[in-house]
Amino acid sequence: MKQYNILFLCTHNSARSVLGEALASTHQSGRFVGYSAGSTPGTNVNPFARELAKEMGYPEEKLRSKSWDEYGLSDAPQMDFIITVCDNAAGEQCPFWPGKPATAHWGYTDPSQAQGTDDDKRQAFKEVMVGLRKRLDILAALPLERLDAMSIQAELKKIASAK
């Protein structure tokens, strides 16, 4: 079975995109390899995102905030899908992605802005995680190997409306 590379983008690459990377890479279907990056990456992965990624079984040594420039280099893995998960990244001028990957915006409120107790903040991260997992489940169920590029693009955009 072919594995598909998915790059999740968010401006600072510290929360939502990191969750996407971990979810895709640990997805039960085994169909995905997740990556994440940002236009202006921060210095650290958010501790709540780190905690959830580790709970999923994602290797802690892979958790780092990265620039999207890394994925435009000639030796970078070629992406099949590019998914923006924050409104800022969706509106930014992205670099050229080799291979013409399918793209979509699966927007989520920034859980790192959640107020309240640590449990309240943890819940905000879990809500993003659940939403991303649902969308990845839908993507994994598609007969991707039988769809052409335009159909895959259309399906990614349909998945964006899944709640």
UniProtKB/TrEMBL annotation:
SMART domains: LMWPc. Keywords: Arsenical resistance. It holds the Pfam family LMWPc. GO terms for biological process: response to arsenic-containing substance. InterPro entries: Ptyr_pPase, Ptyr_pPase_sf. Residues 4-142 form the Phosphotyrosine protein phosphatase I domain. This is Protein-tyrosine-phosphatase. It comes from Polynucleobacter victoriensis.
